[in-house]
UniProtKB/TrEMBL annotation:
InterPro entries attached to this UniProt entry: DinB/YfiT-like (IPR034660), Maleyloyr_isom (IPR017517), MDMPI_metal-binding (IPR024344)
Domain Mycothiol-dependent maleylpyruvate isomerase metal-binding: 16-154
Listed name of the protein: Mycothiol-dependent maleylpyruvate isomerase metal-binding domain-containing protein
Record SUPFAM superfamilies: DinB/YfiT-like putative metalloenzymes (SSF109854)
Domain of life: Bacteria
Molecular functions (GO terms): metal ion binding
Pfam families xref list: MDMPI_N (PF11716)
């Protein structure tokens, strides 16, 4: 039960978390209130992304009774179906405010807490916001969040966008699976192989 794709999801998540922390370390003091992504400032963007760390530690302590979500792609599709954009925006703003006067230290602490929590369990069935799923099936969704929003932070703050290859591989697999299950697989495959471009604004999450 749980992850069986041969990828060390823990190690890749740790790599993604380390990359995100590096991006946060690179944010200058005068950049935190600059535009980050959409309506979010850089601070709100970092706060939102930091939830990819904090939820890992939180959910490990929330056992589920049954498996309702099979993998990270299913997680994204289920979450998207019930998403409230305004609620997501508000949570990001709140998470940004919660970073306080020393946001770097808060993000580092969240990373360390997540890794410590991972180190004390195997692959429990956890209760996520969209239902029960195995931890190692949930982690790729967090790796994907850290990869995508790590790029957002880098672009917003003028840093080099260089996400580790193994992290990109996991994120691409998750989003590609989500696209295929949503009925957009052929469009994504055509774009990846240079057959056609994706429509403006296309997204699977």
């Amino acid at each position: 039960m749980g992850n069986s794709n041969g990828i060390d999801e823990r190690r890749v998540f740790e790599t993604a978390a380390g990359h995100f922390v590096d991006m946060v370390h690179g944010i200058a003091a005068d950049q935190w209130d600059r535009p980050g992504l959409g309506d979010w400032s850089v601070r709100a963007l970092v706060g939102h992304t930091g939830r990819a760390l904090s939820t890992v530690a939180d959910y490990i302590d929330r056992p589920a009774d049954d498996q309702r979500i099979r993998d990270a792609a299913d997680y994204y599709l289920t979450a998207a179906a019930g998403a409230d954009p305004e609620a997501v925006r508000a949570r990001g703003e709140q998470a940004g405010q919660a970073l306080g006067d020393d946001p770097v230290s808060v993000v580092v602490a969240a990373r360390d807490r997540a890794l410590a929590a991972l180190a004390r369990v195997d692959n429990p069935l956890i209760q996520t916001v969209v239902g029960g799923m195995y931890l190692l099936d949930y982690l790729p969704s967090r790796t994907t969040e850290l990869a995508v929003h790590g790029m957002d932070v880098a672009r917003a703050t003028g840093q080099d966008v260089a996400v580790p290859a193994e992290v990109v591989e996991v994120a691409t697999a998750v989003l590609g699976a989500a696209a295929a299950r949503r009925g957009d697989g052929e469009a994504v495959l055509a774009a990846l192989t240079g057959r056609s471009a994706l429509p403006a604004g296309f997204t699977v999450v």
